[in-house]
């Protein structure tokens, strides 16, 4: 596989060796799941965080069905959120991810997916926390 020259080597690195690919159990109360799609291209990104009682993100993983830039952006996003407080990661901007990976302007929406996915994962975790405990999900 050869990638066009317009991609920065960091993108190629995160593309060839994406960090933290995987899934957590979304029914785990310590897990927040963000699932977002890009209307522009139909690509989908799932980013999950594991949060401890102090609100610190102890682990993160992703699955992205999308272009190389979206995969690289999710890979960077999981690296950046690990070890941070939830409020802190809400300030991560897609433009910072894009800059880090030197994404060309046409690929900006791919990094937007990562910013949205982080926010959605935090929101999901917080919604789970504030909801009164429900009956455990039925195993299928
Ligand atoms: Fe991986 Fe910077 S090269 S986050
Ligand atoms: Fe749509 Fe990259 S082309 S996420």
Can you describe what's shown?
The protein has 140 residues and is α+β, with helices and mostly antiparallel strands. 40% of the residues lie in helices and 17% in strands. It is built from 5 helices and 3 strands. Strands 1-2-3 form a 3-stranded antiparallel sheet. The mean pLDDT is 89. The structure holds FE2/S2 (inorganic) cluster (2 copies). Belongs to the NifU family. It comes from Rubus argutus. Keywords: 2Fe-2S, Iron, Iron-sulfur, Metal-binding, Mitochondrion, Transit peptide.
Helix and strand layout, with pairings?
Layout: H1 9-16, E1 31-37, E2 44-51, E3 57-65, H2 68-81, H3 86-89, H4 94-100, H5 108-130
Antiparallel strand pairs: 1-2, 2-3
The structure holds FE2/S2 (inorganic) cluster (FES) (2 copies).
The site of one FE2/S2 (inorganic) cluster has 5 residues, from helix 1 and helix 2.
Keywords: 2Fe-2S, Iron, Iron-sulfur, Metal-binding, Mitochondrion, Transit peptide
Subcellular location: Mitochondrion matrix
Cofactor: [2Fe-2S] cluster
């Amino acid at each position: 596989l050869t990638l066009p020259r317009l991609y920065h080597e960091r993108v190629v690195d995160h593309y060839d060796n994406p960090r933290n690919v995987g899934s957590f159990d979304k029914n785990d109360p310590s897990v927040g799941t963000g699932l977002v799609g890009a209307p522009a291209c139909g690509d989908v990104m799932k980013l999950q965080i594991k949060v401890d009682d102090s609100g610190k993100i102890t682990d993160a993983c992703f699955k992205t069905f999308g272009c190389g830039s979206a995969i690289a952006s999710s890979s960077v996003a999981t690296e950046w959120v690990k070890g941070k407080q939830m409020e802190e990661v809400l300030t991560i901007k897609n433009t910072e991810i894009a800059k880090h990976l030197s994404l060309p302007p046409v690929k900006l929406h791919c990094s937007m997916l990562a910013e949205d996915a982080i926010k959605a994962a935090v929101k999901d975790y917080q919604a789970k926390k504030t909801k009164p405990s429900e009956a455990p999900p039925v195993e299928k």
